[in-house]
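Workshop exercise sheet. Pairs work together: one partner reads the sequence aloud, the other fills in the structure field after running the prediction. Swap roles for the next sheet.
Pair: D.N. / O.F.
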Amino acid sequence: MVRPIDWDQVKTVAELGAGTGAFTNYINALKSPNCKVAVFEKDEEMRDQLYILYPWESIYLKLKNSLNILDTMPLS
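Structure field:
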């Protein structure tokens, strides 16, 4: 699902509803070093697991609400 993306061109990614982080792992492996990633997960327990499983500096785990996505994305 994520391989057809031209990852050299991607500057910012938002993953909505990361769940167990299956796609988070692929995104982190394929993205360029300059790409910013925001991961959203509503469920507190799953979010806590994501913090443990994916402690990368380039991944920004967001608290539950993705309704204001433009205000919370790491665009710079």
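Discussion prompt: The mean pLDDT is 80. What would you look at next?
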